[in-house]
Structures are given as structure tokens and as C-alpha cells.
Amino acid sequence: MPGWVAAGPEGIPAYTLARAGAAMNAAFARRLAAVGLRPHTFSVLVHLAREPALTSAELARRLAMTPQSMSSLLHGLADAGWVERPSGARRGQRIDVRLTPAGRQALAAAGPVLAELGRPEAMGLTAEEAGTLHALLERVLAAVDTTDRPRRTP
């Protein structure tokens, strides 16, 4: 048996990072649920708040979702009144999705929840450790990210 198997996966940094990511994803989802949002919903609202008009295809690429999944998600967001999508567009015509005032309100409600989750103490870290962790995670992302979205340089 290889030594790393006998020692257990806890000694493998990538394994620990994956476990920490899964735990943080679960905490992120729980906190967003408290204000009526889900992670993908939150991400769509953030993208639309930053860029006032994006197509469904652009959003799907940014969130690494299929166009069909994005269409379904946007349908739910439109039903909730958080986004608007013009109807009656012709084939090949650009159809922009826009954030509504209600969508901005929903996004604003997430602010305090995310601020609490992002506090270094909530992650068991000091402010200095949180800064170091953030810088290291950015480096890991730059090294392993194979999507075609723009990369930030540390």
C-alpha cells in the first residue's frame, strides 16, 4: 500500500482544500438561503449588478452552466421579479437580461450575511491569516483554472 494511502488523505493539501471548499460552499448556501437566495441566483444578480445588460449565453459562460440550465434559472428569476428579459425577440437578435429594482434589493439583503461569513474570525483566522489565505487561494485558482474567463494576476 502506498504511504499516502496508509497515512490517510488528510496529509494531501488538495484533499484538504477540496474539503474546505465543500464546507465553505455549504455555509455560503445556508447563509444565502436565510435571505431567500441560492448561490447561482446570487451569482447572476452580482453579474447583472456589475454589468447592466448581459445575454443568457454570456451569463451561462460566466457561471459555467449550460445554456438550458441558465434559461431555466433566468425564468425563475424573472418570475420572482428580480430580472427582466424582453419577449418577442427575433431569431439571432441579442436579448439582454437586466436586473430589476427588486433584484437589487434581493442582492442588497445578502450583504450583511456575506459580511458575517467573510469575517476572518468566522473562518477561524486572524485578519493577517485571512489575507494570506486569500492571496494563496488566488494563486491556486490561477494555476488550476482552465476556463476561458479572464484571470486576475496576484
Could you describe the 3D structure shown?
The model is unreliable at 150-154 (pLDDT under 50). This protein starts with a helix and ends in a 10-residue tail after the last helix. The longest helix has 21 residues, at 13-33. It has seven helices and three strands, in the order αααβααββαα. It has helices spanning 3-7, 13-33, 39-50, 56-62, 67-79, 101-118, 127-144; strands spanning 54-55, 83-84, 96-99. With 154 residues, the chain is mainly alpha-helical. It has one domain: Winged helix-like DNA-binding domain superfamily/Winged helix DNA-binding domain (Arc Repressor Mutant, subunit A, Orthogonal Bundle), CATH 1.10.10. This is HTH marR-type domain-containing protein. Residues 10-142 form the HTH marR-type domain. GO terms for molecular function: DNA-binding transcription factor activity. InterPro entries: HTH_MarR-typ, MarR/SlyA-like, WH-like_DNA-bd_sf, WH_DNA-bd_sf.
Distance between the ends: 39 Å
Task: Classify the fold: give the CATH topology.
Answer: Arc Repressor Mutant, subunit A
The overall pLDDT, averaged over residues, is 88
Overall tally of structural domains? 1
